[in-house]
Amino acid sequence: MSGLLELVRPDLRDFAGYASARRADVRGSVWLNANESAWRNPADAGLGANRYPDPQPAALRERLATLYGVSAESVLVGRGSDEAIDLLVRALCVPGMDAVVVAPPVFGMYAVSARLQAAPLVEVPLRDDAEGFVCDLDAIADAAVSHGAKLVFLCSPANPTGQSVPVDDLLALARRLAGRCLLVVDEAYGEYSDQPSIAAHIERQPNVAVLRTLSKAHALAAARIGCLLAAPELIRVLRNCQAPYPLPSPCVQLALAGLSEPALAQTRGRVLTVRAERERLLHELPDCAGVRRVYPSQGNYLLVRFEDAEAAFRRLLAAGVVVRDMRASPQLGDALRISIGSPDENDRVLAALATGRAAA
Question: DSSP characters for 185-204?
Fold first, then answer.
């Protein structure tokens, strides 16, 4: 058994999972093995939705592998990144025993999945300094070792705080945790970042896994497609723990079309627009009345502190602009997260907050 598989719950290391009809390696022209309807639904315009989909569509795995620079055997596709987070916690953490380490304020699904699995949650808060929020990697390593953690989740670029962690620093952390813990780097916003992906290092550092999604830069949030990039032996275990048919065929077709070269060219152009708009707002928001601080960001959002966050939130709503209220998050009692929209939408943000300047 590889050292990586020793991180998996003992009762799941040899777990075969559910053998669905589509997992069987058989070929034919008359399909009578899954109790499906032989007829398409009257509303089915060529989708073939009367047949169960491939649990791990080969064409999509290959396309994602090419996009992210890994082998297809290192790709698990599923219902957004959320499913991969849940699968990792359920497959690696024995309830009540194996801990999960996070660095709040951060994306809340890591903690949700840990709680649902009764996995102890260990928090190592980010430090808020003059340059922005900073992740204390030494403290994270110490916490993971001392609490017997099986998983460390780091978001880079971090949501909602915006900072990235250098790949060399992540690799140093992974080496410290080797044989003890899996380091999961959530790169949901990686397309917007100056920081390269750590995915290229998975083969040499197998206790690293990477989360990616088509929901953000690729504009396919409603399709609910994400993936985990990890060592093939871990991917095989997680596939056995996954629901039989995670991805609807129409969503897979949409994803493949959205990852074509012409579509990717448009996506890259839009990413450049978002990055330029992010810098514009970073420099213009501080001039709005009541803005205390705007944090630099490597994602498609900015975290903003206000003298009166409630008043700012209401001004934006009155202008029809909905932003994310972060005041319930640790260390963010005065903050809102503003996604970077189109130039016109960003102008509306600035205009709404400028009304407060006029009133002041």
Answer: EE-TTGGG-SSPPSGGGTTT
Name the helix (H) or strand (E) containing 16. none
Q: Is the distance from CB of 251 to CB of 223 less than 8 angstroms?
A: yes
Closest to 51 (Cα-Cα) out of 41, 33, 37, 65: 37
Minimal CA–CA distance to 165: which of 130, 126, 204?
Answer: 126
Which CATH fold topology does 5-259 show?
A: Aspartate Aminotransferase; domain 2 (3.40.640)
Are 181 and 150 in contact by the 8 Å Cβ rule? The answer is: yes
> Is 263-359 the same fold as 5-259?
no
Q: Domain ranges in the chain?
A: 5-259, 263-359
Q: Are strands 182-186 and 208-213 parallel, antiparallel or unpaired?
A: parallel
Say how far apart CA 141 and CA 207 lie, in whole Å.
14
Q: Residue 273, SS3?
A: helix
* Alpha carbons 40 and 50: distance in angstroms, whole number: 5
Token pair 């209220």: residue:
325
The owner of tokens 């290391």 is 13
Q: How confident is the model at residue 358 (pLDDT cuts 50, 70, 90)?
A: very low
Amino acid at position 189, single letter: Y
Q: What is the CATH number of domain 263-359?
A: 3.90.1150.10
242, 17 contact by CB (below 8 A): yes
Per DSSP, helices labelled H in the chain are 58-68, 80-92, 109-116, 137-146, 167-177, 232-241, 249-258, 261-284, 309-318, 343-359
pLDDT tens track for 193-238: 999 999 999 999 999 999 999 999 999 999 999 999 999 999 999 9
Task: Give the C-alpha separation, 301 to 161, whole Å.
Answer: 9
Return the exposure string of 158-169: e unless at least 16 CB atoms fall within 10 Å of the residue's CB, then b. Answer: bbbbbbbbebee
> What is this structure's pTM?
0.95
